[in-house]
Amino acid sequence: xxxxxxxxxxxVYPIFSSAGYFRWTGRTGLAVVTYxxxxxxxxxxxxxxxxxxLITAERFREQLRLLKKRYTVISxxxxxxxxxxxxxxxxxxxxxxxxxxxxxxLTEMLPILQSEGLHCLFFVTGISAGSERRMLWYMALxxxxxxxxxxxxxxxxxxxxxxxxxxxxxxxQATWWNAVKRLSQIGASERDxxxxxxxxxxxxxxFASEALRSDSGARQLGFLTKEELQELSDRGMTxxxxxxxxxxxxxxPLEYAQAEIAGSRSLLEAALGKDIWAFAYPFGDAGSVxxxxxxxxxxxxxxxxxxNIGGGLGVPLQRYALPRVHVTQHMGPAEFEAHVxxxxxxxxxxxxxxx
Length: 355
Known about the structure:
Layout: H1 4-19, E1 30-35, H2 48-51, H3 57-70, E2 72-73, H4 76-83, E3 93-100, H5 104-115, E4 121-124, H6 137-147, E5 151-157, E6 160-166, H7 169-183, H8 188-201, H9 207-211, H10 215-221, H11 226-234, E7 238-241, H12 254-272, E8 278-280, H13 291-299, E9 304-310, E10 322-326, H14 333-340, H15 343-354
Parallel strand pairs: 1-3, 1-10, 2-3, 3-4, 4-7, 8-9, 9-10
Antiparallel strand pairs: 5-6
Helix pairs in contact: 1-14, 3-5, 6-7, 12-13
């Protein structure tokens, strides 16, 4: 597959897209695409995987116009009615979603959506129900570990032992992800205490706040506040829940996971005075969403819940595990359409059957 992918991206996808093949494969159902935001002016690279989640304004507009021309972009309200069995989907239906609730969703993304006459379902954490500008906890940890000095470290905080050796970038990436999984196993208050202690340990107590002080830093890394979230809602966008603090839910005890899921709905409904009917699982892959976690979204009263893998027209649709196409900056128009049309996922299923 490593050698097939460049040929698909550079040759096969463009030929199929320009010939109209993706639009006339006969696949039905719903394609859900998910963004994480649009790069603000002054965007600074952080980490390849993280950077790729934010796309340029030009790419975002290009994708929206492709969808408007070749597919039927539906409103979140129609998606809700469909999930309840109260409405049918139009041909080649596509739903726009966006995860995390970064400030650029309001400042960069919303103006483009409005100029194109489209609506999006924004999944935000309970942090956006507050008035303080904050950064995603695991993003702050990533930035810290990238900048920490080379060498061994060992920290004990709140019963958590965290040690290792910081050297090259891949090693730091592995250390970070192991820490994310470990910190997802504890409550939010314990996690916050650990993060404070590790910042002190490396002498970077004000690091996160400094990163958010500039306008570009706040737009790239900062969460929406309650007032900004209200503005996003008042200007016609739909708000969904994305847990209280964005942990890896599969790592949490079920009672903690339940509190993360149900608590985010209650808090956001109180902040906005509106029904929060949709939920998106943090990270949203098979490793972070177990069958037990899937049940929790239904028990919390959501009408539908969304994964972050496997999307496209023609794929099986489960009400509390709706697949999505994760859009990244490196996706050109033809590759983007290969995913939306369901061609990519159909091809992947074929490879898996043959493996």
